[in-house]
Prior knowledge:
Blueprint: H1 2-33, H2 39-63, H3 83-90, H4 92-109, H5 116-140
Helix pairs in contact: 1-2, 2-5, 4-5
Amino acid sequence: MGRKQSKSNFVRRHGLSITAGVVLLTWLVLYIVSDDQTHWGSFFGNAIADWTGLFVMVLATKHLYEKGSKESRQPFPGFLDHPVFEKLREHSLTVFLLITGAMWTWLFARSDPQGKWGQVAGNIVSEWTQILGLVLMTKKLKEAGSKESK
């Protein structure tokens, strides 16, 4: 009985990331078996980029911190007493997005932009710039009616 409750708690605590991951995996499988020159194939490719962004935001905001962003989680305690490491900790979400965004950009630059996976990589680069922009904008800008902006 304790083991069943343990599984239930795990699913309850991680249900959003599990579900987003399953949806992303579904889009990947559908894109692999589809023709990217059809409407459905094109849709699946776009969905991969969108759901990759959503999946990363769920996981990144769960584990990383961005100083000044209301949506960001509370920072983990400093592990090394050095100003460089403190800056990295305070901006770990931005650092993560910059590094992974650079990797996606590198991949896109070396792929055929008209190829099946080149289009997906280009859409993911677009998604990453949008996510990074949102993280940076939420540090300083407010939106009336948003509880995070109070």
